[in-house]
Amino acid sequence: MKSKKTKTDKSSVHKKKPKSRNTTTPQHSGLDDILEVIRGAGSQGLSVKNIFKQLNLTSAANKQECADLLQELVRKDEVKINLEGNFTATKGAAMPGEALEGIVDFVNPRYAYIICEGLEEDIVVNAKEMSNALDGDRVLVALWAKKRRDKRQEGSVLEVLSRKREEFVGKVQLSDRFAFVVPDSKKLHFDIFVKKSDLKGANHGDKVVVKITRWHDEHKKNPEGEVTIVLGKAGENDTEMHAILAEYGLPEAFPERVEQEANELPKEITKEEIKKRRDFRNVPTFTIDPEDAKDFDDALSFRTLDNGNYEIGVHIADVSHYVEPGSELEKEAYRRATSVYLVDRVVPMLPEVLSNGLCSLRPNEDKLTFSAVFELDKDAKIVNEWFGKTIIHSDKRFSYEQAQEILDGAEGEMKHEVLTLNKLAYKLRDQRFKSGSIAFETIEIKFKLDEKGKPLGVYQKIRKDAHKLIEDFMLLANKRVAQYVYDLVKQEESKLTMVYRIHGDPDPEKLSTLAQFAGRFGHEVKLEENGNISHKLNQLALSTEGKPEQNVIQSLAIRAMAKAIYSVKAEKHFGLGFAHYTHFTSPIRRYPDMMVHRLLQQYLDKKFQADKKLYEEKCKHSSEREKLAADAERASIKYKQVEFMAEAIGKTFEGIVSGVQEFGIFVEMSETKCEGLIRMQDMNDDYYEFDEKNYRVVGRKTNKTFTLGDKIKVKVKDTDLEKRTIDLTYIR
């Protein structure tokens, strides 16, 4: 998305103007004056003399001051000098009086941020100036003149260009004459009016999906809508899980036409198809997956070659063989882009006929696969590699627990293969960490549920060698597929299109916060010294392993890093320390892997044309859907955590301060890994002020502080399932 810049004068096609400020005749001084003059000159820019002339500067002192300010603007990258020696404004410079296109991030009921591409800083808009724009909407925002240079840029929404969504999830509230739906989303700050005739049979307290039929305006406080789906009684497990999916716009049931197409796929593998493929059916092959998994994306084959090296096959379900471009299955897979994993269920990207049947690499069945085959020496160095279509026959299906028992010394089938692969995995891991891979991992919270979905216990999933063995070989395949395609660029005249998984450098400011935070626990991170940041972060990961602060510190470290996304740009993956990386190994549950399979096969067939722009659009869509799925997963975890902690009201827990805000202190309870909030209004021993710069709150009278990382005792005061919140009180 590009920032669309226009002038908000009478000639503008956008007739509506901000209510509170005049955007056509802004008042400036200093830097703003100079920037406005330069922007007015367009791409040709202005010489220093012309800038002096336009600003009516005559005295030597005023000219010197202007020259100094020009240099400051250059240093700030708001102004640059072109080949003619003239000053021109950079892309990131925003001027009062302009209108920019951006996306709404509605922070709270009082104000929102408008995120505009090309601007370093988001624009703040008061709720009264939002023109009824909602979170996620694309809008046109007018910029106000700054009163102070150090103040954040403010503005007013002129027009809603497009709505992110028109359907919302909420709870029905009935009165004698009318009904309202109270939205679940914390970023929607209004109720939706619904006529009783439009409730579709919903009762008071039911969770529903409501579609907006008439938007609110200056005269109408609430929009109007009609119920489209009744999800069920609020508080029931199925209702809440369905509500979470609907809240994030994630589908559950497949359209009938998609299911029908899946059911009509041929179940038998023909001899003609087998002839096209490399046959691995006689090579020892197995899968390792969670105990309850049904969609087996990947399998490993192993054999020792005559020269003493090892041949390792990473075999991936050949989904693209069954899901053809333009088919209903393809369209639905793209729309979903990913499987969604909630606490108690999986919402698959593909119908079960494919995900749990045709494409699942089940034991004792012939299966079509797309493989990366490596010849490794005993030091896990690659001697040869091969990519192509294959057919396999898995001999054994291991759960992670069964594979781990063998690694721990138990007897069992394929023990030699599993043990040897684990030794090679250790060496691959060492190579990866030496090249800059980060060891931080998010702690995965799991629940023990009863038959109705009620949480009976919460525990932390422990990653052992069996998990890491599979991970290391999947990483190897993903890395080498990306590198193989990238290297083809050197052989071809034009650059090839590829779907990469990229991950930028961490935010320096967030790294500084991490270092300060870790220091409170005695973990020293010397960012100011020369050296590899990855190495320093890995030292921190090692020093926190198994300690109470591990989850908070590692979560903070991950937040300091950029979000990994899909892109056609051949950029690095910082977190893994790879120059090039992709996703090749999970096409049953990720659409980008299907794209990679198609592109790789195309290049293996010596067909080098692919629409880069189209693939970039698909990458962006896949990244957005991945984020929605992750948000939904977190929402389901938070719901179950609150439901579990509802049984602990009045109980005391040890915890760590995991966040501070002006309204309260977030605390992660060490025993359950659940996070709750101590509200400032409940801190009645003093008046506490928020020190944003130092991530702490300070008592005005006592000078008592609560800072990120502090260990404290808390009591569970209350829980609210609808808001998914846990209220705590501080135990002195």
Strand order of the largest sheet: 14-21-20-17-16-15-22
Query: How large a portion of the residues is in β-strands, by DSSP E?
Result: 25-35%
SS elements, strand count: 34
* Spans where pLDDT lies below 50 across 5 or more residues: 1-29
Number of helices: 17
Gyration radius, rounded: 29 Å
The SS-based structural class is alpha+beta
What shape does the CA trace take?
globular
- Intertermini distance: 51 Å
Helical content band: 25-40%
Q: What number of structural domains do the residues give?
A: 4
Mean of residue pLDDT? 87
> Biggest sheet, open or closed, and with what strands and sense?
7 strands, mixed
Describe the fold and architecture.
This protein has 732 residues and is α+β, with helices and mostly antiparallel strands. It folds into four domains: 27-95, Winged helix-like DNA-binding domain superfamily/Winged helix DNA-binding domain (Arc Repressor Mutant, subunit A), CATH 1.10.10; 167-234, OB fold (Dihydrolipoamide Acetyltransferase, E2P); 256-501 and 574-627, no CATH class; 649-731, Nucleic acid-binding proteins (OB fold (Dihydrolipoamide Acetyltransferase, E2P)), CATH 2.40.50. Strand 18 (340-341) and strand 19 (346-347) form a beta hairpin. Helix 4 (237-247) runs antiparallel to helix 17 (612-645), helix 11 packs across helix 12 (465-491) and helix 13 (508-519) runs antiparallel to helix 15. The longest helix is centred in the last third of the chain and has 34 residues, at 612-645.
